Amino acid sequence: MRKTALITGPTSGIGRHTALGLARMGFDLILVARNEAKTRELQKEIGDLVETTFVLCDLSSMESVRRAVGEIKSSYGQIDLLVNNAGLIVQHRQTTGEGIELTFATNHLGPFVLTTGLADLLKAAGSARVINLASAAHYFAFRYQTAKLANPPHYQDLVIYGRTKLANILFSNELSERMALYGVTSNAVHPGTVASGFAGDGHGATAWFMKAFRAVLRTPERAAADIIHVATAPELDDVTGRYFVNAKPARTSGKARSRALARELWTFSETLNEATSEQNLLNP
Protein backbone atom coordinates (compact mmCIF):
# COMPACT_ATOMS: atom_id res chain seq x y z
CA MET A 1 0.00 0.00 0.00
CA ARG A 2 1.32 3.42 -0.95
CA LYS A 3 2.03 5.95 1.76
CA THR A 4 0.22 9.28 2.00
CA ALA A 5 1.97 12.62 2.46
CA LEU A 6 0.30 15.94 3.24
CA ILE A 7 2.12 19.11 2.25
CA THR A 8 1.07 22.71 2.81
CA GLY A 9 1.95 25.43 0.34
CA PRO A 10 2.76 23.05 -2.55
CA THR A 11 2.09 25.36 -5.48
CA SER A 12 5.44 27.15 -5.79
CA GLY A 13 9.08 27.21 -4.73
CA ILE A 14 10.27 24.66 -2.21
CA GLY A 15 6.80 23.27 -1.66
CA ARG A 16 6.25 22.51 -5.34
CA HIS A 17 9.55 20.68 -5.71
CA THR A 18 8.92 18.80 -2.46
CA ALA A 19 5.53 17.66 -3.77
CA LEU A 20 7.00 16.59 -7.10
CA GLY A 21 9.85 14.74 -5.40
CA LEU A 22 7.51 12.87 -3.05
CA ALA A 23 5.26 11.95 -5.98
CA ARG A 24 8.24 10.45 -7.81
CA MET A 25 8.93 8.38 -4.69
CA GLY A 26 5.39 7.01 -4.82
CA PHE A 27 3.63 9.01 -2.11
CA ASP A 28 -0.03 9.79 -2.65
CA LEU A 29 -0.42 13.49 -1.92
CA ILE A 30 -2.83 15.68 0.02
CA LEU A 31 -2.16 19.18 -1.33
CA VAL A 32 -3.28 21.79 1.19
CA ALA A 33 -3.34 25.21 -0.45
CA ARG A 34 -5.37 28.38 -0.85
CA ASN A 35 -4.92 28.75 -4.64
CA GLU A 36 -7.05 26.18 -6.43
CA ALA A 37 -5.94 27.12 -9.95
CA LYS A 38 -2.24 26.65 -9.16
CA THR A 39 -2.93 23.42 -7.32
CA ARG A 40 -4.84 22.04 -10.30
CA GLU A 41 -1.83 22.88 -12.49
CA LEU A 42 0.42 20.92 -10.12
CA GLN A 43 -1.99 17.99 -10.18
CA LYS A 44 -1.85 17.99 -13.99
CA GLU A 45 1.95 18.00 -13.86
CA ILE A 46 1.96 15.03 -11.50
CA GLY A 47 -0.62 13.28 -13.66
CA ASP A 48 -1.46 9.69 -12.81
CA LEU A 49 1.92 9.02 -11.22
CA VAL A 50 0.17 8.95 -7.81
CA GLU A 51 -3.19 9.97 -6.42
CA THR A 52 -3.49 13.63 -5.45
CA THR A 53 -6.18 15.42 -3.48
CA PHE A 54 -6.63 19.17 -3.25
CA VAL A 55 -7.85 20.60 0.07
CA LEU A 56 -8.65 24.31 0.12
CA CYS A 57 -7.18 25.98 3.19
CA ASP A 58 -5.97 29.40 4.25
CA LEU A 59 -3.53 28.74 7.09
CA SER A 60 -3.98 32.26 8.44
CA SER A 61 -7.63 31.46 9.24
CA MET A 62 -8.19 28.97 12.03
CA GLU A 63 -11.77 28.49 10.86
CA SER A 64 -10.42 27.49 7.43
CA VAL A 65 -7.85 25.15 8.99
CA ARG A 66 -10.43 23.41 11.15
CA ARG A 67 -12.65 22.96 8.09
CA ALA A 68 -9.72 21.43 6.19
CA VAL A 69 -8.99 19.08 9.09
CA GLY A 70 -12.58 17.87 9.03
CA GLU A 71 -12.45 17.30 5.26
CA ILE A 72 -9.20 15.34 5.51
CA LYS A 73 -10.39 13.19 8.42
CA SER A 74 -13.54 12.30 6.52
CA SER A 75 -11.50 10.93 3.60
CA TYR A 76 -8.36 9.42 5.13
CA GLY A 77 -7.62 6.89 7.85
CA GLN A 78 -3.96 7.71 8.23
CA ILE A 79 -1.20 10.11 7.18
CA ASP A 80 2.37 8.85 6.93
CA LEU A 81 4.09 12.19 6.37
CA LEU A 82 3.06 15.76 7.12
CA VAL A 83 5.23 18.59 5.74
CA ASN A 84 4.41 21.99 7.23
CA ASN A 85 5.99 23.92 4.38
CA ALA A 86 3.78 27.00 3.86
CA GLY A 87 4.96 30.29 5.31
CA LEU A 88 5.34 33.98 4.62
CA ILE A 89 6.98 37.21 5.64
CA VAL A 90 5.24 40.56 5.13
CA GLN A 91 6.87 43.97 5.15
CA HIS A 92 4.11 45.74 7.07
CA ARG A 93 1.87 44.57 9.88
CA GLN A 94 -1.33 42.85 8.85
CA THR A 95 -3.98 41.36 11.11
CA THR A 96 -6.27 38.46 10.26
CA GLY A 97 -10.04 38.57 10.59
CA GLU A 98 -9.62 36.64 13.84
CA GLY A 99 -7.43 39.42 15.28
CA ILE A 100 -4.06 37.66 15.00
CA GLU A 101 -0.90 39.08 13.44
CA LEU A 102 -0.70 37.54 9.95
CA THR A 103 2.85 36.13 10.04
CA PHE A 104 2.30 34.33 13.34
CA ALA A 105 -1.12 33.04 12.25
CA THR A 106 0.22 31.64 8.97
CA ASN A 107 3.64 30.39 10.04
CA HIS A 108 2.81 28.90 13.42
CA LEU A 109 -0.79 28.88 14.59
CA GLY A 110 -2.28 27.47 11.38
CA PRO A 111 0.25 24.61 11.20
CA PHE A 112 -0.28 23.97 14.93
CA VAL A 113 -4.05 23.64 14.50
CA LEU A 114 -3.63 21.51 11.37
CA THR A 115 -1.08 19.13 12.88
CA THR A 116 -2.77 18.66 16.23
CA GLY A 117 -6.12 18.28 14.48
CA LEU A 118 -4.69 15.42 12.40
CA ALA A 119 -2.83 13.78 15.30
CA ASP A 120 -5.05 10.68 15.24
CA LEU A 121 -4.27 10.10 11.55
CA LEU A 122 -0.55 10.40 12.23
CA LYS A 123 -0.80 7.97 15.13
CA ALA A 124 -2.73 5.51 12.95
CA ALA A 125 0.22 5.25 10.56
CA GLY A 126 2.38 3.76 13.30
CA SER A 127 5.59 5.39 12.07
CA ALA A 128 4.61 8.79 10.71
CA ARG A 129 6.94 11.74 10.34
CA VAL A 130 6.23 15.46 10.71
CA ILE A 131 8.57 17.96 9.07
CA ASN A 132 8.33 21.58 10.17
CA LEU A 133 10.10 24.16 8.02
CA ALA A 134 12.06 26.44 10.29
CA SER A 135 14.89 28.87 9.59
CA ALA A 136 18.17 30.23 10.88
CA ALA A 137 16.12 33.42 11.18
CA HIS A 138 15.02 32.07 14.57
CA TYR A 139 18.23 33.67 15.86
CA PHE A 140 16.55 37.04 15.10
CA ALA A 141 13.75 36.36 17.61
CA PHE A 142 14.69 39.31 19.78
CA ARG A 143 12.56 40.12 22.85
CA TYR A 144 10.59 36.92 22.39
CA GLN A 145 7.54 36.82 24.67
CA THR A 146 4.97 34.10 24.07
CA ALA A 147 2.03 36.17 25.29
CA LYS A 148 2.76 38.91 22.73
CA LEU A 149 3.21 36.74 19.63
CA ALA A 150 -0.36 37.13 18.40
CA ASN A 151 -0.41 40.91 18.77
CA PRO A 152 3.13 42.31 19.01
CA PRO A 153 3.43 45.91 20.23
CA HIS A 154 6.09 46.70 17.60
CA TYR A 155 6.54 45.41 14.06
CA GLN A 156 9.76 44.75 12.14
CA ASP A 157 9.33 42.10 9.48
CA LEU A 158 12.52 40.08 10.03
CA VAL A 159 12.18 40.08 13.83
CA ILE A 160 8.53 39.02 13.63
CA TYR A 161 9.42 36.35 11.07
CA GLY A 162 12.26 35.17 13.30
CA ARG A 163 9.89 34.78 16.22
CA THR A 164 7.60 32.58 14.13
CA LYS A 165 10.55 30.45 13.06
CA LEU A 166 11.56 30.05 16.70
CA ALA A 167 7.96 29.03 17.36
CA ASN A 168 8.24 26.42 14.60
CA ILE A 169 11.22 24.79 16.33
CA LEU A 170 9.63 24.97 19.78
CA PHE A 171 6.45 23.40 18.42
CA SER A 172 8.40 20.73 16.57
CA ASN A 173 10.31 19.82 19.72
CA GLU A 174 7.22 19.68 21.93
CA LEU A 175 5.36 17.64 19.31
CA SER A 176 8.22 15.14 19.29
CA GLU A 177 7.83 14.68 23.04
CA ARG A 178 4.06 14.30 22.93
CA MET A 179 3.97 11.91 19.96
CA ALA A 180 6.98 9.70 20.74
CA LEU A 181 4.88 6.94 22.32
CA TYR A 182 2.92 6.60 19.08
CA GLY A 183 5.91 6.18 16.78
CA VAL A 184 5.51 9.68 15.31
CA THR A 185 8.69 11.70 14.82
CA SER A 186 8.84 15.48 14.52
CA ASN A 187 11.83 17.40 13.19
CA ALA A 188 12.50 20.97 12.08
CA VAL A 189 14.37 21.72 8.84
CA HIS A 190 16.09 24.93 7.77
CA PRO A 191 15.97 24.82 3.95
CA GLY A 192 18.55 27.58 3.57
CA THR A 193 18.05 30.95 1.93
CA VAL A 194 16.38 30.00 -1.32
CA ALA A 195 16.09 31.79 -4.67
CA SER A 196 12.31 31.73 -4.92
CA GLY A 197 9.50 34.28 -4.84
CA PHE A 198 9.43 34.09 -1.04
CA ALA A 199 10.02 37.49 0.60
CA GLY A 200 10.89 39.00 -2.76
CA ASP A 201 7.95 41.37 -2.97
CA GLY A 202 7.91 44.85 -1.53
CA HIS A 203 10.65 47.42 -1.00
CA GLY A 204 11.98 46.64 2.47
CA ALA A 205 15.45 45.43 3.46
CA THR A 206 14.42 41.78 3.37
CA ALA A 207 13.02 42.07 -0.15
CA TRP A 208 16.15 43.95 -1.29
CA PHE A 209 18.40 41.19 0.06
CA MET A 210 16.41 38.46 -1.67
CA LYS A 211 16.59 40.27 -5.01
CA ALA A 212 20.23 41.41 -4.76
CA PHE A 213 21.65 38.01 -3.80
CA ARG A 214 19.30 35.77 -5.77
CA ALA A 215 22.08 34.46 -7.99
CA VAL A 216 24.04 32.97 -5.08
CA LEU A 217 21.11 31.59 -3.09
CA ARG A 218 20.12 27.93 -2.94
CA THR A 219 17.76 26.57 -5.55
CA PRO A 220 14.29 25.37 -4.52
CA GLU A 221 15.22 21.94 -5.91
CA ARG A 222 18.23 21.63 -3.57
CA ALA A 223 16.22 22.78 -0.57
CA ALA A 224 13.42 20.34 -1.40
CA ALA A 225 15.93 17.50 -1.68
CA ASP A 226 17.09 18.17 1.90
CA ILE A 227 13.50 18.19 3.16
CA ILE A 228 12.70 14.95 1.36
CA HIS A 229 15.84 13.34 2.82
CA VAL A 230 14.84 14.18 6.39
CA ALA A 231 11.28 13.09 5.61
CA THR A 232 12.13 9.69 4.14
CA ALA A 233 15.69 8.53 4.90
CA PRO A 234 15.58 5.09 6.60
CA GLU A 235 18.46 5.99 8.91
CA LEU A 236 16.28 8.76 10.39
CA ASP A 237 13.38 6.47 11.26
CA ASP A 238 13.80 6.99 15.00
CA VAL A 239 15.35 10.47 14.99
CA THR A 240 13.04 13.08 16.50
CA GLY A 241 13.15 16.50 18.10
CA ARG A 242 16.09 17.65 16.01
CA TYR A 243 16.86 20.68 13.83
CA PHE A 244 18.44 20.00 10.43
CA VAL A 245 20.58 22.22 8.23
CA ASN A 246 21.87 20.82 4.91
CA ALA A 247 20.09 17.58 5.85
CA LYS A 248 22.29 17.17 8.94
CA PRO A 249 21.48 17.77 12.64
CA ALA A 250 22.53 21.27 13.70
CA ARG A 251 22.56 23.44 16.79
CA THR A 252 19.82 25.96 17.53
CA SER A 253 19.64 29.04 19.72
CA GLY A 254 19.29 28.61 23.47
CA LYS A 255 15.65 29.74 23.35
CA ALA A 256 14.85 27.04 20.78
CA ARG A 257 16.13 24.38 23.19
CA SER A 258 13.93 25.55 26.07
CA ARG A 259 11.36 22.95 27.17
CA ALA A 260 9.63 25.58 29.28
CA LEU A 261 9.12 27.88 26.29
CA ALA A 262 7.94 24.96 24.18
CA ARG A 263 5.30 23.97 26.72
CA GLU A 264 4.26 27.59 27.18
CA LEU A 265 3.83 28.05 23.42
CA TRP A 266 1.75 24.87 23.16
CA THR A 267 -0.63 26.05 25.87
CA PHE A 268 -0.82 29.55 24.36
CA SER A 269 -1.60 28.07 20.92
CA GLU A 270 -4.35 25.85 22.31
CA THR A 271 -5.90 28.86 24.02
CA LEU A 272 -5.82 30.92 20.81
CA ASN A 273 -7.37 28.08 18.83
CA GLU A 274 -10.17 27.76 21.37
CA ALA A 275 -10.70 31.52 21.36
CA THR A 276 -11.05 31.68 17.57
CA SER A 277 -13.42 28.71 17.66
CA GLU A 278 -15.64 30.43 20.22
CA GLN A 279 -15.45 33.64 18.18
CA ASN A 280 -16.77 31.81 15.12
CA LEU A 281 -19.56 30.21 17.15
CA LEU A 282 -20.61 33.60 18.45
CA ASN A 283 -20.37 35.20 14.99
CA PRO A 284 -21.51 32.55 12.48
UniProtKB/TrEMBL annotation:
<comment type="similarity">
    <text>Belongs to the short-chain dehydrogenases/reductases (SDR) family.</text>
</comment>
<keyword id="KW-0560">Oxidoreductase</keyword>
<protein>
    <submittedName>
        <fullName>Short-chain dehydrogenase</fullName>
    </submittedName>
</protein>
<dbReference type="InterPro" id="IPR036291">
    <property type="entry name" value="NAD(P)-bd_dom_sf"/>
</dbReference>
<dbReference type="Pfam" id="PF00106">
    <property type="entry name" value="adh_short"/>
</dbReference>
<dbReference type="InterPro" id="IPR002347">
    <property type="entry name" value="SDR_fam"/>
</dbReference>
